[in-house]
Amino acid sequence: MTLLLDLPSASASPLQRLDPRWKLAGLVAAALALALVQSAWVALLGLAGALLLAGVAGLPARWFLERLGAALLVPAFFALWLPFVVRPDDVVQEIVGLSISVTGVERAIALLAKAAGVVTLVLVLLATAPLQDTFKAAQSLRIPAWLVHLGLMSYRYLHLLGDEFSRLRTALRVRGYRNRARLHSYRTIGQVAGTLLVRGHERSERVAQAMRCRGFDGQFRSLHQGQTRAADVVFFAVVILAAGTLLAWDLWIRW
């Protein structure tokens, strides 16, 4: 879990030099537009645009593919069944005596393309700027401060909980525990989960006390101050125009 949450250092690229506020606004808007698309061809075009941004950002190929593959496991499970679910208005093709919904295949492609495109945009956003700058940009865009702090603290302390779970797992294996489908294993898993929650609560109390001792007042502060330049506005305009074009094309196809 910890490895999947690790972010690469921002590489020198045109996207890395953009103001985090404009980049956040543009990529989030593009992700929302892509999520609303229903046509398979439009979704594939949106995925191609997202992959183009990933290439421009210079994301490490292995890091990108590992996280993209992990994120697509759940939508792939649902998309797997769509070709076999025949609805009254679907186009059906008989293959080896099996009814395959062509419309369902298109839905599956659209679902996977949209999921891959949205995940790619999120990874581009996270990998092209330090995480604290992205959260500060979110607060600058009037996202509630409590939500920004909750996101940042969750990201940081998921790593700690993952390390704590690894230590508990190592301790169990040293004592000869093996996970099997029996009552003792279920009881042990419940005890481990309870221990993890108790230790997480104790750690959160210590963190809260440390923050209050340092004068935390609920405001997000960063050493990096954003500065709007022409390239930021151009990037935002191009991304919004591309996202709007995809939505318009999708509506035209479905009309």
Provide the descriptors you would attach to this structure in a database record.
255 residues; mainly alpha; two-stranded antiparallel ribbon; 2 strands; 70% helix
Describe the structure.
The mean pLDDT is 84. The chain is mostly helical and 255 residues long. It is flat and about 60 Å long. Helix 2 runs antiparallel to helix 6. The protein has helices spanning 2-5, 20-36, 40-57, 61-71, 73-79, 102-127, 131-140, 145-174, 183-213, 230-254, and strands spanning 92-95, 98-101. The relative contact order is 0.17. It folds into two domains: 2-130 and 225-254, no CATH class; 145-213.
Report the radius of gyration as a whole number of Å.
23 Å
- H-E string: HHHHHEEHHHHH
- Show unreliable segments: none
C-alpha termini separation: 44 Å
Q: How does the major sheet shape up?
A: 2 strands, antiparallel
Shape: flat
